[in-house]
Design brief:
By secondary structure, this protein is mainly alpha-helical. Helices cover about 75% and strands about 0% of the residues. The termini are far apart. About 50% of the residues are buried.
């Protein structure tokens, strides 16, 4: 019975990404009626769940923190490709698209995913325990990249408005690539043990002994299906965006809300994977996913849009407004205070979620 159940689960996680990708091809850049949007949303949800499954198979095969890195980078690469495509087609309307998307990713990952993971683990196990060395290094890198890319343009004077000059943009792109590359090297090679889950006593957990390690063939298959599922997730999220835009306009909400909703959809695979790890008391894996996604979003998006700006005719606005600057500063301060003790209670998780709630509230009523 158990074997049949596992086989059925495996078939489901293979079929759904492929079918979702076919639905994406059939519906790409088409005006969809209401029933079709509902159908697309169902396949979007199925692709998200399938992506989480395949990411966990890969993570179990290669071990942490490599598994978290695979999911974070895969989602971000596809997201960046979508951003650049929309910027090329959008003209002046897409001037703030990169900024809004990157900032939304930072707030959702550093407050939403991180806070929910800490809260879920701390409620179940009394405290959430993690490795402060790796988490602190990731948070410091996020703070530096966010400041160089999103804060400085607000105060520079070489170009009018919250924009970089070409030389400043080139520097921000180079700094993003270098710092992200150094972070990946630290994560995977030089200080890998800083990013591994720990026991309540602080001992590093090298491997998960509760399940048989997948074969190389199964891992490669999951890697391919993960890519298919993520393409489907991002593409279908883009497909339902006109309906979201219409709903936002009908409700009289700011246009930036559309970017927030799409970012929430795109980050669903990481959110679910992080919560499942937190429930298993492997909070460090959750933090790797959250902070790694934020780093990948900045470290890959800024160089990509800098390169795209060579042929983009419209402006590229990267500087944050006053309220977002305050929220970013608050996120970094609260994150630092959460990381330093190496363990967190439900209160810290709730504080991060409160910051996310404030961001979402200001997105709706700026």
């Amino acid at each position: 019975m158990i074997t049949k159940l596992r086989a059925a689960t495996t078939r489901w996680t293979v079929v759904v990404p492929v079918v979702a990708f076919v639905v994406l091809v059939l519906t790409w850049k088409r005006d969809l009626p209401g029933w079709a949007v509902a159908l697309v949303a169902c396949f979007l949800a199925g692709a998200v769940l399938a992506a989480v499954h395949h990411a966990e198979v890969i993570a179990h095969r290669v071990g942490e923190p490599f598994g978290s890195l695979v999911l974070a980078v895969a989602v971000t690469v596809i997201e960046v490709a979508l951003i650049v495509t929309l910027m090329v087609d959008g003209g002046d309307k897409s001037a703030t698209l990169a900024r809004d998307t990157v900032f939304a990713a930072v707030m959702i990952t550093c407050n939403g995913i991180l806070g929910a993971s800490i809260l879920a683990s701390a409620v179940k196990y009394r405290v959430a325990v993690f490795n402060a060395e790796g988490t602190g290094a990731a948070l410091a890198t996020i703070g530096t990249l966010a400041t160089l890319s999103l804060v400085l343009p607000t105060f520079t004077t070489s170009s009018p408005g919250p924009q970089f000059s070409p030389a400043q943009l080139a520097f921000a792109a180079a700094a993003s690539i270098v710092l992200y590359g150094l972070f990946v090297a630290t994560l995977t090679v030089r200080h890998r043990d800083y990013f591994l889950p720990v026991t309540p006593d602080g001992e590093v957990i090298e491997e998960d002994d509760h399940a048989e390690r997948p074969t190389a063939r199964a891992a490669v298959t999951s890697l391919v299906l993960l890519g298919v599922a993520l393409v489907a997730v991002v593409g279908l999220a883009k497909g339902v965006s006109p309906t979201i835009e219409s709903a936002v306009a009908s409700a009289g909400l700011p246009q930036s809300v559309v970017g927030v909703v799409i970012a929430l959809l795109v980050l669903l695979p990481e959110t679910i994977a992080a919560l499942r790890a937190a429930v298993r008391n492997q909070v460090q894996t959750s933090l790797n996913l959250a902070l790694g996604s934020a780093l990948a979003s900045i470290g890959l998006t800024i160089p990509a849009v800098a390169l795209a700006s060579v042929w983009l005719s419209g402006p590229l606005v990267l500087g944050l407004g006053p309220s977002h600057l305050v929220l970013l500063a608050l996120t970094l301060v609260v994150g630092t205070l959460t990381v330093i003790p190496r363990r967190a209670t439900p209160l810290q998780g709730a504080v991060h979620l409160a910051v996310l709630a404030a961001y979402l509230e200001l997105a709706v009523t700026p």
